[in-house]
């Protein structure tokens, strides 16, 4: 059993694009059973993948950012293994974690980072649900084992999520329409 658990450092990154970031130093996390994951320098992430219309509730970054980077890397390794396995490769290695374990590690690490209970469980439910729609996450998906928790969390959150989400979607639609009309209108300089 490892004496030290959690991350050994802060996140060291630089912007790659407007929405992606590259690690400049490795990010190392050690679990309570001694399992260690090393996200290598050079790994590119978007932090937490959150649809724009939900940014009012969860931003792509926050107390959970390092957990999101680790989750992204674990999923990238799982996708690489899946692709290689389907093409006849991936002999002699397995991904660091299967789909279900990857999401569980995400929730555990968020807890270690002090992310509030409701936020970490909703983020966990979101990534578990997303696993249903990503064929490269089939290895160890086992969604049925978590379906009651996921559905229960969504049912509890719906009264809070629905009004805010509808409001944001309507607002984004209005902004899109205004932007569309504005592009067709000459500016003061052009007149």
What report would you give on this structure?
- Helices cover 48% and strands 9% of the residues.
- It is mainly alpha-helical and 191 residues long.
- The protein has one domain.
- The strands form two sheets. It has a three-stranded antiparallel β-sheet with strand order 1-4-5, covered by helices on one side. Strands 2-3-6 form a three-stranded antiparallel β-sheet, covered by helices on one side.
- The longest helix is centred in the C-terminal third of the chain and has 42 residues.
- The radius of gyration is 20 Å and the shape is globular.
- The termini are far apart.
Compressed to H and E, one letter per element, the order equals EEEEEEHHHH
- Assign an overall shape: globular
By oligomeric state, this entry counts as single chain
Q: How many DSSP E strands?
A: 6
Structural class assignment? mainly alpha
Uncertain segments of ≥5 residues (pLDDT<50)? Answer: none
How many structural units, i.e. domains? 1
What's the arrangement of strands in the largest beta sheet? 1-4-5
Helix percentage: 40-55%
Cα(first) to Cα(last) distance is 73 Å
In angstroms, what is the radius of gyration?
20 Å
Mean pLDDT: 87
User: Approximately what portion of the residues adopt beta-strand conformation?
Assistant: 5-15%
The largest sheet, given as strand count, sense and whether it forms a barrel, is: 3 strands, antiparallel
Number of helices: 4
């Amino acid at each position: 059993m490892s004496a030290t658990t959690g991350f050994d450092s802060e996140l060291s990154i630089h912007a790659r694009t407007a929405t992606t970031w590259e690690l400049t130093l490795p990010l190392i996390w050690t679990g309570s059973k001694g399992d260690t994951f090393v996200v290598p320098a050079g790994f590119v992430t978007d932090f937490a993948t959150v649809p724009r219309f939900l940014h009012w509730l969860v931003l792509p970054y926050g107390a959970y950012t390092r957990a999101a980077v680790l989750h992204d890397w674990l999923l990238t390794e799982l996708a690489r293994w899946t692709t290689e396995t389907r093409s006849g490769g991936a002999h002699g290695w397995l991904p660091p974690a299967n789909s279900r374990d990857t999401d569980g590690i995400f929730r555990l690490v968020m807890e270690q980072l002090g992310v509030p209970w409701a936020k970490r469980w909703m983020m966990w439910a979101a990534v578990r649900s997303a696993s249903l729609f990503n064929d490269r996450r089939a290895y160890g998906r086992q969604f049925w084992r978590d379906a009651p928790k996921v559905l229960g969390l969504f049912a509890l959150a719906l009264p809070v999520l629905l009004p805010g989400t509808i409001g944001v979607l309507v607002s984004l639609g209005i902004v899109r329409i205004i932007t569309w009309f504005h592009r067709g209108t000459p500016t003061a300089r052009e007149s």
